[in-house]
Amino acid sequence: MRATTTKYILGINSGAVKNNLLCQMQADILGIPVIRPKNHEATIYGAMLLAGLSTGIYSSLDELSGMWSVERVFEPQLSKDEADGPTPAGWPRVSSPRVGRRSCRSRRSSTSHYGERVQIVRRSLDHPDAAALCAAVQAEYVIMYGGADSSPMAAAHFEPPEGSFLVGYLDDAPVGSAAWRRLAPDKAVSALVTAEIKRVYVDPGRRRQGIARLLMLALERDAHAAGIERLVLETGPMQPEAIRLYRALGYTDTDGGGWSEYAGHPNVVILQYLLPRD
Known about the structure:
Largest sheet: 7 strands, mixed
Structural class: alpha+beta
Strand content: 15-25%
Order of helices and strands: EHEHHEHHHEHEEHEHEHEE
Number of helices: 10
Oligomer: single chain
Mean pLDDT: 82
Helix content: 25-40%
Distance between the termini: 48 Å
Number of strands: 10
């Protein structure tokens, strides 16, 4: 059966994990993220570290924890119906991500696997649903990058007219979020009224079904109505699906101005989108 909860991930190792198709198939069939470590031979590597701990080469488990790192996260790329369907129909589509196919459509298309069942509601940052989604995305950052996002977040940043925190609900259950906050002109380093996008997240069991696109388009409409002219965001290499979505929506590379928390870090991806003028 396909898992639909955020608490499950699959860690993999040994020589076979070098095969990207095999890793992607596991993610698609199970419906959960599959994490490949940088050291593929994790079993023998772990035995070596424990031997070092027992002989005093390493001082503690905390020291050992910093020696394990993620090489790549494989996110499910098939909907539940596709994954549960006939094998010949499902497996060949693994190498053709749905975001890539949708990028040929108009960026204004808001097609979702769930259609009108997704309801998007503005919440305060300290609302229980918003807080739970923020905690979930921070937990993913720890797995992907070894630490949580250190950008300062305050509830006032996401209250109109300074910003907004949107939560997506599917059958009354919170399944995703997207937020924006207005940047001061000196931080934006732009003549355009600029806002930063934060906390774009979808429950792993609901990904690849158009919910992230719905949230992004709702965020853009909300920001535009508040007078925002330019949206910016920063992300990283462990989130290739998110980067593909942003680029499919028309986001392009830019610098971090005075706002980016991670400008100058290796492999950071900084993007912008100019909202249409009325």
